[in-house]
Write a structure and sequence with these properties.
252 residues; mainly beta; 8-stranded antiparallel beta barrel; 3 helices
């Protein structure tokens, strides 16, 4: 009987400790939501996979040769939204969603307009461990685990088209020759380990800034044409990059 009493008292002490941890964290920060802005460094179209874009339009040169490196931007800004809440004094769980893109435009000697649009979308769950210091400043480390989608859309069209020409699929001259377009996309897993800090400006708002690594790879054969038709011989495309993220949050 004494053994069961001891076990019962030990369980009460453990439950009391857990409850105290949760109670300790609640006055500091129950939860927060706000916009988040990421800056992806060296986030570029893969030269090997997209080298044939130069055949789509000679105005674009993905190999960075000459002065035609317009589509090989070296960075991308991703805008999104993040929410997180404390589950213990040291651990927070949250969700993040964001999207970024860059556009490239060109016009050839025949005054045909060309466009390339490279888009990245990401959504996932975040888990963070923080110092839970009694000051407003908290150091943290964590990671995002989720899914993403990469897409590349390209189009060309003659200058100054009418509505009728566009809807009917004809050029101004009546022959559908210079208008062409495609969009390819692929779903990818996303993992983003990071380190950073969080600072409560007041009882109602604060900011978080982190730096980390975006691990994202579109597998071979995963690309689809117009989100529907599988491209079986599509290559593997790495979408890795160092990133920095800033969030301004409202404390709930």
């Amino acid at each position: 009987m004494k053994r069961w009493v001891t076990l019962f008292l030990s369980m009460l002490a453990w439950l009391g400790s857990v409850q105290a941890q949760f109670a300790e964290g609640q006055p500091v920060l129950r939860g927060a939501v706000g916009p988040a802005f990421s800056y992806l460094v060296s986030f570029e179209l893969d030269e090997t996979a997209f080298i044939d874009l130069s055949s789509f339009s000679s105005e674009f040169d993905i190999t960075l040769e000459g002065n035609k490196s317009i589509i090989n931007n070296s960075a991308m800004i991703v805008t999104g939204f993040e929410g997180f809440g404390e589950v213990t004094p040291h651990w927070t769980i949250g969700m993040y969603a964001g999207q970024g893109e860059y556009l490239a435009y060109a016009q050839d000697a025949a005054r045909a307009d060309y466009m390339i649009n490279f888009t990245i979308s990401q959504v996932g769950v975040t888990a963070e461990f923080n110092t839970h210091s009694r000051s407003r400043l908290k150091l943290l480390g964590g990671s995002l685990f989720g899914i993403g989608q990469a897409s590349v859309a390209a189009s060309s069209s003659p200058e100054n088209e009418s509505w009728t020409d566009i809807i009917s699929g004809n050029d101004p001259g009546g022959v559908p020759s210079t208008r062409k377009a495609f969009e390819v996309s692929a779903w990818t897993p996303v993992i983003q380990p990071y380190l950073g800090l969080r600072f409560d400006i007041s009882r109602t708002m604060g900011f978080k800034t982190i730096a980390g690594w975006n691990e994202q790879v579109a597998a071979a054969g995963s690309w689809r044409l117009y989100h529907n038709k599988v491209i079986t011989d599509s290559p593997e495309v790495p979408l890795r990059a160092l990133f920095f993220r800033f969030q301004l949050y409202v404390i709930l």
